[in-house]
Amino acid sequence: MLTVNTHEAKTQLSRLLARVSHGEEIIIAKSGKPVARLVPIKSKTEKRTPGTDKGKAWIADDFDSALPQTLQSFFE
User: Fold this and answer.
1) Where are the strands (E) in 1-76, listed by range?
2) Are 27 and 3 in contact (CB under 8 A)?
3) pLDDT tens, residue order, the chain (76 aa)
4) Is the dihedral of CA 15, 17, 21, 22 positive or negative?
């Protein structure tokens, strides 16, 4: 794992990003002490499988029926 100081990180950011995009991790240090880690972002490659939650939720038959007048008055 490569360690660079903050000045080098600022001046060579594009080169460092190119290395990170190929999977390398880079430590950024200030006064010789590590303060940050530059790592690649892992994209989600897992595909969604439709229907995996089928049967786990339900909607009541009267879901969209009118509210009782006593409750409706609170919204008016």
Assistant:
1) 2-5, 26-30, 33-38
2) yes
3) 899 999 999 999 999 999 999 999 999 999 999 999 999 998 777 888 898 888 899 899 988 999 889 999 988 8
4) positive
Q: What is the pTM of this model?
A: 0.55
**DSSP H helix total and E strand total for the chain:** 3, 3
Token pair in block for residue 15? 């080169």
Residue-range domains of the chain with CATH: 1-41 (3.40.1620.10)
Rg (CA), the chain: 27
| Residue 40, both tokens | 């690649």
